[in-house]
Amino acid sequence: MKIGIITWLESAEFEDLVLQALLTQGISRVELEYRALSIDSLVRFLADKPATDSRFILIHDGDEITSTLERELRRFPGAIRMAIEPAIGDVAVEIERTVNRALREFETIPVPRKSVQRMKNLVVVTGSTGAPGTTTITLNLGNELSRLKPVALIDLHPHRRDLAFLLGAKRSSESVRLSDNLSISGELSEESSALQLVDAGPIPNLESAFSDRRAPARNYVDLLERAETLIFLMTPDNNHMFELESILASLDAGRITARAIFILNQTGNTRRERSIQKRFSARVGRYEWQYLPFDRDSLDRAKSAYSALLDVAPRSKLRKSIGEVANRLFE
């Protein structure tokens, strides 16, 4: 089955490069459906397009999607949106990889799942593979949030249970009370009135997780479906950009409906890192996103003192950036 390609790109030269990468680089299952000259022409085209399960990929600039266009796109559950920054490096290779991943996403037929009740005040922190910092950010974000409201840190990391350990408690601790407004436990509570902040660990293969009946994948997907807010962490790594595409595809397809906040952690100032930062911001531009600076010194001080950054490095750039993420959750 052919997958349609619809483009809306300001630069005609860049659009030609994109189409060349799609149509001549070995992706045999895609075909050009429409080249929009303006957002108005794109809206008109989608308005006239029959509202079926039509499968297509909309490739657009990093500009914000208008509410009118968003409304038309919601008519097509099989659509995937792909924002591309004209200044990225090896664009042909990256476009080919991204579209092939999108094609595999189309091929995945999810097994019908029971509806999951959304939990108010449930924030799930997950991230790419390769230790992007989910546990460290969960711990420090919880400390920031607990200054204003009760917070329960929930350690559901599938490989390591380090939340309590990083604050000086035993790894085997089932429940730790840190203050009147902050505690750590190993399970969610349906009755809790506190904000529950979950360290869910790394993202699995989402293409199969939604139809996987095994407990680890099922529990992870249940968390995503219950979450009121999802925080996705990654570091400046090309491989992590591929995992970013996976969760964006699930958001765009409506499989995940939580409010999403994307964080690029451990950002530096090398040429490669600046390039990835630019690609990251272009790709997640219509969602909430933020950079967190790399600050090994402050993190080492917190780790050696078994404390949060708020206690040992309150004026550090990293602590202030995490505070900004906390402020987003109060908005």
Describe this structure in words.
This protein is of the alpha/beta class and 331 residues long. The protein folds into 2 domains: 3-107, Rossmann fold; 122-330, P-loop containing nucleotide triphosphate hydrolases (Rossmann fold), CATH 3.40.50. It has 12 helices and 12 strands. Helix 2 (39-48) runs parallel beside helix 3, helix 4 (91-107) crosses helix 8 (238-252) and helix 5 (134-145) packs across helix 12. Residues 107-112 have low confidence and may be disordered.
* Radius of gyration, taken over Cα atoms and rounded to an integer in Å: 21 Å
Percentage of residues assigned to helices: 25-40%
Shape: globular
Topology order in helix (H) and strand (E) letters: EHEHEHEHEHEEEEHHEHEHEHHH
For this structure, what is the CATH class of the largest domain? Alpha Beta
Spans of 5+ residues with little confidence (pLDDT < 50)?
Answer: 107-112
Largest sheet: 8 strands, mixed
Give the structural class.
alpha/beta
Query: Quaternary status of these chains?
Result: single chain
CATH superfamily of the largest domain, called what? P-loop containing nucleotide triphosphate hydrolases
- The average pLDDT value, as a whole number, equals 84
Number of helices: 12
Q: Kindly identify the CATH topology of the largest domain.
A: Rossmann fold
What's the architecture of the largest domain in CATH terms? 3-Layer(aba) Sandwich
Q: Strand content of the residues, in percent?
A: 15-25%
End-to-end gap: 44 Å
